Every structure is written in C-alpha cells, then in structure tokens.
What does this fold into?
Amino acid sequence: MNFEFNSVLVTGAAGFIGFHLSNRLLEDGCHVAGIDNLNDYYDVRLKEDRLEKLKSFSNFSFFRTDISDRESLEKIFENTRFDAVVNLAAQAGVRYSLENPHAYVNSNLVGFVNLLECCRYNSVKHLVFASSSSVYGANTNMPFSVHDNVDHPVSLYAASKKANELMAHTYSHLYGMSCTGLRFFTVYGPWGRPDMALFLFTKAILEDRPIKVFNHGKMQRDFTYIDDIVEGIVRVMGRLPEPNPEWTGDAPDPGTSYAPYKIYNIGNNNPVELTDFIAAIERNLGKKAKKEFLDLQPGDVPATYANIDDLIKDVGFKPGTSIETGIERFVAWYRDYNQL
It folds into this structure.
C-alpha cells in the first residue's frame, strides 16, 4: 500500500547513509528533522561537514542528541509530527564490536526501543530501520535471501541488528505498527565512512602506506553504491508493509509476517572479490597498492551476496551502479574533499 510522507525523522543524519538520504529527501521537498550524537567513532569533522550541507536547506532541522537518551527523544516527538521515521543511527562496525560491546547495547538496543516507543505513542505511519547483511552470519547458502533463517550471527554488531528486526516485529504484532527492515550490503561512495575499506585503501595508497588485505584477498562483498541504497530506502518508505495472508506458524517465513512487517535486502546482487575491488581503486588512482596479506578477522564473513527478488517485485528497483563507476565517483570526491 503506497502512502505520501511530507515530514520525516532521520536518525543518524550526520552519518554516511543518513546524510545522503536526508539530502535526497530535502531536495524532494520533504521536511526533514535529523538526529545525531556526533560521536567520535570516526572523524567528527566529516560528520560536521555533512551537516553543514544539510543545514543549507530551509526545510531541515537538527537535534544533537542520542537516541539512547529517552527524555530528549520523547521531547522531539512531542513537538513535531512525523509521517515516517528512518532509523540509521547505530553504533556501526563489526570489528569495533569486539572491543566496545557496550556502545552497541546503548545505541542499537536501548536506542531502538526508545524509537519504537516514540513511534508507537505518536502514531508514526511507517518505521523504516537499517538492518545489515551481517545478520546472515554463518549462513553459506548464496545469494542470501530474506526468507532464510538468520539465527547464527558471528559478531555482536550482527546480533544487535538481528535483535532490531525481532523487536520491530514484536511492535508490529502488538500494536499494528508498520515496520520495514532493510539489510544493507557493503555501502560505499562519496562522503563514506573512514573506517570502511574504500576510504582506508584510497588514503593508504595515496600516502604510500601498505593496505591490509584480509582473507588473503579472497573475500567477496556485494558492494552497493550509496545512491542505489538511497533510492531503495525512498521507494520502501512510500510503501507500507502489508500482512502476508499465506504466512503460517507451521512453516514461518522470516522475511514476512501476519503483521504489517517486512524485510528487504538492498544489495548490488553482484559479489566482487576484494582483489578486483583493489584493482579498480588502483586504476582510478593511477597508482599500485602495497599489500599486506592477512587471515580472516574474527567476526568477519568470507562472502556476501544479496538476493533482491522481493525488492524488485515490490518497489520495482534494482541497484545497478558498477564498481568502476562508484569507485571513480568516490575517488573524485576524495581528491576534492581533501584538496589533493
């Protein structure tokens, strides 16, 4: 069922995906309220620069707060009515979850419950939330389908994202809340996160430092360009999930429900080996990388590959930006942003 949204709350608005989504919605004429805590998990200057661009829009308002701060969040909902809420605020990163598990509990669990409660009590029509391809964990049946069981995460980050899906389903069941979860597959592009491979590799190659190549380059990732991710989110936002009349408890389908709840993968549907990804960066930089080959890291998976049949069927969209195009755009942005 399609619905119009004019007022949207985007959490994590100063983050990579949050910034791009907010920018797109603002250009489309939506009123966007952004929330971000501007934490120092990575360079705060990058987050502030993204925010400056968003603040140039008259239809943007910003609240510096943390979604784990319940009182602060409740005040925002009391003062503004939102048609839709898109939750992109989360403590990100698989590896960091091994070092600082409590950050994930505060943001990804406590913060998400606070959001669910605010949506429930303020009659928000649609909650769209970021899940992650990492929920597939130990699964090896490729491509990963939303209709597969995902009960074996291999990092706390993945477990927290799986928990979000379960919590949202519970609210959908109890209160009839329309909730849609989006499993993003390795997002990259301009204004990207400095802790991600593309940013790390580009920076190191330009500085003549060696890059760390995990799993000896045999890693495969379904790299998905940021504009494709945003297009997918916007289309899903305007489509309220409907109960699946064929859902049965005898053979429960994890991707749908008898409640207004749905899960989608948003991925490029085309896994790329890490060595090919690096080669594309080298071509765009006109410079060879010095490589340090290492074993697979704890919490990482050797491959990701998205089945996007449901996304195509329901919202008529298939990501299509090639690695070559996406990396070229990132490198151009990186040189410009760093005045190289």
About this structure: Residues 21 and 27 are 10 Å apart (CA to CA). The first strand starts at residue 7 and ends at 11. The longest helix spans residues 101-121. The mean pLDDT is 95.
